[in-house]
Amino acid sequence: MTESEWLAEGFEKNRTRLKAVAYRMLGSLGEADDALQEAWLHLSRSDTRAVENLKGWLTTVVARVCLDMLRSRSSRREVPLGESPGVHLPDPIVSRGDRIDPEQEALLADSVGLALLVVLEKLTPAERVAFVLHDTFGVPFEEIAPIVGRSPAAARQLASRARRRVQGAAPSPEADLARQREVVDAFLAAARNGDFEALLATLDPDVVLRSDGGALRPVASVVIHGARAVAEQALIFSELSPFVRPAVVNGAAGVVVAPRGRPFSVMGFTVRGGKIVEIDILADPERLSDLDLAVLDE
Fold this sequence. Notes:
Elements: H1 3-26, H2 29-45, H3 54-76, E1 94-96, H4 102-107, H5 114-120, H6 125-136, H7 141-148, H8 152-169, H9 177-193, H10 196-202, E2 203-212, E3 222-225, H11 227-236, E4 244-249, E5 252-257, E6 265-272, E7 275-282, H12 285-290
Parallel strand pairs: 2-7
Antiparallel strand pairs: 1-4, 2-3, 4-5, 5-6, 6-7
Helix pairs in contact: 1-2, 1-3, 2-3, 3-6, 3-7, 5-8, 6-7, 6-8, 7-8, 9-10
């Protein structure tokens, strides 16, 4: 086997893990693929004869690429004074309601729910990289330090600061998917029947609804707090109920709304203690068109 063949085989062997790293860091499936492509180009141009741990070396390369992408993204998303920052949700991973694709399951290991990814979006690039590498993939701080350009102690502080923000803001969903589905189905039935009180019964009093309509549907970009306000919003869109299809969204109960088979939105629910505590809706037509919505092929 030639060196190039060995490298190609090693890269393919680690591809799913590397994409999982990139997806957690970037929250974008397309950008995760771009990061892997950049890592492969770097690999093909590098002298790797001294590399003993190819998996660790590739993880470092992908992390550096992602950090550069996050920093570039942060500068692009700076909002002029006086303007609203809008709503940006991560890319959801959508599976059929009765099964999860093995590759998707690998990407979602360690419960990478939308609620967690939303919080990760609020971290600084260095915090996000340090947290993902250490807390999810067990990379030592001695290896993280040169990636983020800090000392090991400073890298540890980055991850610790990120961990506190995640623990304080990302609710842990119920582990039982069937129980999640019961609560979500009750919510959808109440919306379909126009039953306001039944809707309230499914919602945590402090529920948060986030909707990202993107540039093509800016009116759909909203953040709504509180059970009554979220229930009122659900009733407004109850006419879409016939087009709701159950799905698994980032490993949790969700739905795809697809009038005439065309995706209108993907909704992910976070259920805790028998109540819906978060609803995340991607309604951006441009980004929806890029998603693999296999659930629509049922």
